[in-house]
Amino acid sequence: MTQVSLPQGARGRGARSNRSGRYEAVEKVAFDDGWTDAEGPAPTQVPTTVTPLRSRTIISKNQSPDIGFERSINPYNGCSHGCIYCYARPSHAWMGLSPGLDFETRIFSKPDAARLLEQELSARKYVCKRIHIGGNTDPYQPDERELKITRGVLEVAARFNQPVSVITKSNLITRDLDILGPMGRDRLATAFISITTLDRNLARAMEPRAATPARRLEAISRLAEAGVPVGVGFSPVIPGLNDHELESVLDAAAKAGAVTAMYVTLRLPLEIKDLFREWLDEARPDRAARVMSLVRQTRGGKDYDADWAQRMKGTGPVADLIAARFKAAVKRYGLDGPRHDLDTTRFAVPTGSRRQMDLFK
Known about the structure:
- The structure is a single chain.
- This protein is of the alpha/beta class and 361 residues long.
- The chain has a single domain, classed as pyruvate-formate lyase- activating enzyme, CATH 3.80.30.
- It is 32% helix and 14% strand.
- It has twelve helices and twelve strands.
- The strands form three sheets. The protein has a seven-stranded mixed β-sheet with strand order 4-5-8-9-10-11-12, covered by helices on one side. It has a three-stranded mixed β-sheet with strand order 3-7-6. A two-stranded parallel ribbon has the order 1-2.
- The protein is globular.
């Protein structure tokens, strides 16, 4: 274990530290070197860096029985939204980086995503199934505004009539209504907007660089008006912190135009549990002990239970109460309508596209 001075309490970031990933041989631990005053170190500003990744493929596949999609595309690794509870944080450890501040400041982009998607969709053995965009990290994080990688993926999907679903916390999705609108009306696209709270201050603390709750509701409204079936994700539900807002969030989303809803109970796998507790102790010290007690009550007395049968919702009386409230609320606010199945029968490789892709072989 090595003691190093690290940027603690970085301004505008979710993680409070840069804890080492689980594969690192050396553990970095922040310490007070005696050069700070009695009030502690002033918050520092940690810049974001974006590094292009060269990938061979872009469509990922999973066989997890509790995930509602088989194929996904993630235009970015890491996410500068900085959501402290993000289940994707541990993936940065695979790159030798910290799931803490590194995850939200050292972003990796996939500039070849559109080209790779066209190549994979043009393959002679390709069988059309829905592709979920943003299953791991947000496809509309701030750097997408300039890089337009997600937009390029959508342009390819539209040309092939490839059905997609998108999930995001960003109002930036409305930039692509010229693509998503026609696709939505043709049963080729659906969207989910994640809203964890209507409290702007709590959102700023938990999700420092994501869009405000009001802007997310605006995104729901504009997507619905454009003809895109849109749902709301109240995810994660954090007992003792935001669970009291379940009904109000679903009500507001329904009024904005959402037609369906989902939720996931807070998950704290691997490095996230320590990062979340660290954040909770600093951001909400008055309720930290109660929140963690309630979280453990949904996980059989542990911080987390990875059992596929229960990891999304949890178990026990607290989890059962959340499930009952959610079921009642979606019925009350009309968010329990029929599922919007996407049309896979219209998929077609554009004329000349397969021939053009053969040139890359």
